[in-house]
Amino acid sequence: MPMPVRSPFASTDGDSMSGEDETRRRLVAVTIDEASIERGTPDQEHERAIAIYDLVEENRFGITGHEGGPYVLALGLVAGRLSFDIKLEDETPVILHLLSLSPFRKVIKDYFMICESYYEAIRSASPERIEAIDMGRRGVHDEGAGLVIERLDGKIEIDHKTARRLFTLIAALSWKGQDR
Q1: Where along the chain do its domains lie?
Q2: 123, 124, 130, 132 alpha-carbon torsion, rounded to 10°
Q3: Three-state DSSP class for 143?
Q4: Which residues of 141-174 are buried (b: 16+ CB within 10 A; e: fewer)?
Q5: CB 149 within 8 A of CB 160
Q6: 72 contacts: CB under 8 Å, gap ≥ 6
Q7: How far, in Å, are 59, 117, 121, 133 from residue 28 at the CA level?
Q8: Tens of each residue's pLDDT in the chain, 180 residues
Q9: How far is residue 100's CA from residue 141's CA, in Å, rounded to a whole number?
């Protein structure tokens, strides 16, 4: 299993939280099950690494009805489903959520297509073209983040930034078996 990325910091994005909630209701480590993921292109691998780093550095993550935390998250695929294996920082199991990937398929496909266009554009297109494609990419990324929030509603409480980064990692898990 890969070494988790850990952060000693709990940062905020403007939402009001008590100091105790800020310290507890967050992720301190995130891993992706190596057996669940296929290596992507260098651009995809870079994006995944940045998403994990940013997610650990700044996130809001709480389990509905659970007053524990901070949490460690292991993402993976189990029998074709997205697995959120959540533990406390001391590795005490909290909960395992399995979600269908079906609702994510269209937005992930759109995300892959626009990311491919973006990566091609940054090598040769005009700055205006790159900016236009990047705006589209951010829009699809926001759509994916909204879907993450919707699918986790009532189970896991997250903010939009956390959802965006989780969507990046969910897409990374979907690289396996994708036509590239």
Answers
A1: 5-174
A2: -140
A3: helix
A4: beebbebbbebbeeebbbbeebbbbbbbbbbbbb
A5: yes
A6: 4, 27, 28, 29, 30, 31, 86, 87, 88, 89, 91
A7: 9, 33, 35, 33
A8: 443 443 333 333 344 455 666 788 999 999 998 888 777 778 778 888 898 999 999 999 999 999 889 999 999 999 989 999 999 999 999 999 999 999 999 999 999 899 889 989 989 999 999 999 999 999 999 999 999 999 999 999 999 999 999 999 999 888 654 433
A9: 19
Residue type at 116 in one-letter notation: E
CA–CA dist 32, 47 (Å, integer): 14
Retrieve residue 72's tokens.
Answer: 């460690």
3-state secondary structure of 141: helix
